Amino acid sequence: MGFTLFAYLLMGISGITLFFQRQFSIPRTSWLRPLHYITGWIMVGLVLLLLAIGIVGTLGHYGSLGHSGHLIAGLLVVFLVLVSAGSATQISPKRSWARIIHVCTNILLLVGFAGVTFTGWEVVQKYLP
Ligand code: HEM
Ligand code: HEM
Question: Residue 128: what are its φ and ψ, rounded to 5°?
Fold first, then answer.
């Protein structure tokens, strides 16, 4: 989860820099967009890994899912991350709607990550001594 939040921070910094370079027609830094893109897909991979660990762990422990609000928070984060990555593949000068969806989804993702961390912290307490 630490790596995921770090990736999110990197995405925020690189994304906002991309935004300002585009807004003020500042020559683009050649490595910034590839860095943003690659870190983005790594973040998608990390979130899907956390989902898999959570589901396998819960099924292993209870034999069923849905034992706390953490399930909803986790699925919401997965949904937002997939919408963020999906909208990114559609971003182009003609498709400004994709950029708006991308940026709005990523702002919501901050709330999503806070929710999944808070509910995850709650459920993990019962496993701690
Ligand atoms: C989930 C994986 C992600 C991928 C594959 C991705 C990819 C992209 C791409 C291709 C662009 C367009 C760059 C251009 O203008 O040519 C972009 C823009 C941007 N991304 Fe992401 N991104 C991802 C996640 C994020 C996250 C998590 C954030 C924020 C925390 C973010 C913030 C931004 C911002 C602010 C822009 C600039 C929008 C603009 O120019 O108006 N992205 N992203
Ligand atoms: C993007 C991040 C995460 C995702 C997508 C995610 C997803 C999930 C899902 C879907 C479950 C099954 C929940 C159920 O069926 O009741 C689960 C279980 C669990 N997760 Fe996460 N999780 C994430 C982050 C975290 C974090 C940060 C923690 C701890 C601080 C955590 C701790 C747990 C624990 C302890 C369980 C077992 C639930 C139980 O015993 O009731 N998760 N996770």
Answer: -90, 145
